[in-house]
C-alpha cells in the first residue's frame, strides 16, 4: 500500500506564533491518531504582501502583457500600411538596433 501524505497550510494569526500553532496541531492529531507522523515544512514569508496579492499581480501582469503586445502589433501594422501607401520601404526603422519585425517576434 502506498504511503499517503497530507499537506496542511495553517495561517498564523495575531497572538499565535508558528511554533505554538505547530504544537497545538501535533496535540490535536496525536489525540485522534497516535501513530501518525507529522513533519514540519517551513515556508518563508513573502517579501511583500500575501499569496493572494501575488496572484492578483500575476493576473495584472498577464493583462498588461496582452495589452502591450496588442498595441505594438497595431503600431507595426500602421508602419507597414504607411510604407505600402508611400511606396517607400523604410528598412532603417529599428528598435534597439534590431529590425522591428525581429524585435516584435523575439521571445
TrEMBL record:
One of its GO terms (cellular component) is vacuolar proton-transporting V-type ATPase, V1 domain. The keyword Amino-acid biosynthesis does not apply. InterPro entries: ATPase_V1-cplx_csu (IPR004907), Vac_ATP_synth_c_sf (IPR036132). Keywords: Hydrogen ion transport, Ion transport, Transport. The keyword ATP-binding does not apply. GO terms for molecular function: proton-transporting ATPase activity, rotational mechanism. SUPFAM superfamilies: Vacuolar ATP synthase subunit C. Subunit of the V1 complex of vacuolar(H+)-ATPase (V-ATPase), a multisubunit enzyme composed of a peripheral complex (V1) that hydrolyzes ATP and a membrane integral complex (V0) that translocates protons. V-ATPase is responsible for acidifying and maintaining the pH of intracellular compartments and in some cell types, is targeted to the plasma membrane, where it is responsible for acidifying the extracellular environment. Subunit C is necessary for the assembly of the catalytic sector of the enzyme and is likely to have a specific function in its catalytic activity. Belongs to the V-ATPase C subunit family. V-ATPase is a heteromultimeric enzyme composed of a peripheral catalytic V1 complex (components A to H) attached to an integral membrane V0 proton pore complex. This is V-type proton ATPase subunit C. The lineage of its organism: Eukaryota, Viridiplantae, Streptophyta, Embryophyta, Tracheophyta.
Amino acid at each position: 500500500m502506498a504511503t499517503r501524505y497530507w499537506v496542511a497550510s495553517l495561517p498564523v494569526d495575531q497572538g499565535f506564533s508558528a511554533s505554538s500553532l505547530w504544537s497545538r496541531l501535533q496535540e490535536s492529531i496525536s489525540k485522534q491518531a497516535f501513530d501518525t507522523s507529522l513533519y514540519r515544512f517551513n515556508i518563508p514569508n513573502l517579501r511583500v504582501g500575501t499569496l493572494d496579492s501575488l496572484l492578483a499581480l500575476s493576473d495584472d501582469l498577464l493583462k498588461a502583457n496582452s495589452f502591450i503586445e496588442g498595441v505594438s502589433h497595431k503600431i507595426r501594422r500602421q508602419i507597414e500600411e504607411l510604407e505600402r501607401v508611400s511606396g517607400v520601404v523604410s528598412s532603417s526603422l529599428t528598435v534597439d538596433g534590431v529590425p522591428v519585425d525581429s524585435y516584435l517576434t523575439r521571445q
